[in-house]
Specification:
Radius of gyration: 29 Å
Oligomer: single chain
Largest sheet: 5 strands, mixed
InterPro entries: F-box-like_dom_sf, F-box_dom, KIB1-4_b-propeller
Protein name: Putative F-box domain, kelch-type beta propeller
Amino acid sequence: MSGKRRRKLKLLSEAISNNRGANVEVKDENLELQTWADLPAELLELTLSRLTLADNIRASVVCKRWHSVASAVRVVNQSPWLMYFPKFGDCYEFYDPVLRKVYSLELPELNGSRVCYTKDGWLLLYRPRTHRVFFFNPFTRELIKLPRFEIIYQIVAFSCAPTSPGCVLFTVKHVSPTVVAISTCYPGAMEWTSVNYQNRLPFVSSIWNKLVFCNGRFYCLSLTGWLGVFDPVERTWSVLVVPPPKCPENFFAKNWWKGKFMTEHEGDILVIYTCCSENPIIFKLDRRLMEWEEMRTLDGVTLFASFLSSHSRTYLSGIMRNSVYFSKVRFFGKRCISYSLYDFRYYPRKECHDWGEQDPFDNIWIEPPKDFSAHM
C-alpha cells in the first residue's frame, strides 16, 4: 500500500474516532442536564403521594417543583375508614379510601347488635332484644357496658371516647310536638337520667335525625331541618330560631330525608343535602346572622358522610381535598363514592345516587388506629 493511501486511511480513522467521541460527549451532556425535577408530573405526584409524612417533608426541599407537588399530596391527618356490618357472620370489613384497601376482622362480640354512633375509634352499639347498650373498640377489642336503655325511634351520640373524662351520652325523643324527653348517661353510671323539656318550636325525633357534639354541646338536626341544642353541663335545651336550609324543590322527593348528613369542623356546624338527580348542597351555620349559609368550597377540607355519624379532615392527599366522601357503596364492589367541589362531579361519574335503598345501619365511618397491622 502506498504511503499516500496509508495517510488517507489514518485520517479517516481519526475522523471517525473523533466523531464517536463527540457523540458520547453530547449524550453525556444531555444526561447531565436531565434531573429528578424533570420527572413527568403524573409520575412525580404518584411517587410522592405514597411517601410517609416525614419522607414527604424531606422530598419537598429538593426543589420548588417538588415542594409544590409534595405539599399538594401530603397526608397529615389520617382518613377515617368505612366499616361494613355484615348481614350474616362475624367478619367485618374496613375500607381505607386513601390506599383503597379492604381489611377484615372477626368480631363475634358484635353479634346481634346494631351500630348507633362512632367517635375517636369507638363504636356505640345497641342490642334490640335485650336493650343492652355498650361501647366497643374493634381494634383493641375493649368493651364497656352501659345501663340498659330502650332505643326505638331516636338516635344516640356521645361526646368523646368512653375512656376519657367527661364522656356523656345523649339522646332525645319527642313526647309531643312541643315536649321532648332528653336522656343522658356516662360510663360507670347505674342508670340513664331522663328529663322532659318544653320547646318553643315543634321538634320531632326520628331515626333520620342527625347528632353531633360541638363546642361542648350536642346539636340535633330534626327530620324537617330544625336544630336543637343541648348543654350537658348546664342541662339546658332549646330549638334555635334558624329556618331550615333552603334546598331546591326536587330535593324533597321520595326518601329525601335519607340523603341528609351533619358534621362539625373547627367549631362550625355543617349540613349536607343530597338528591339522586342533583349535586350535593353544603350549608354552614352562621351563628352571627343565625342562618344557614351555602358553601361553594370547603377550602381543602374533606368530609366523610354517613347516616349515623360524619367526620371532617384537613390535609389529606391532594385528590381527596375539597370533597365529600359518602358511605354509599358502588354497585360493583364495596367502595365509597365521592363528590369533588373542585370538579363539580361525582366519582365515579355514572354511579346511581339514589339513597332510598341504602340501609342506614349497613356501614359507618370510623377512625382507625395509627398502626392497624398491630391489631390484625
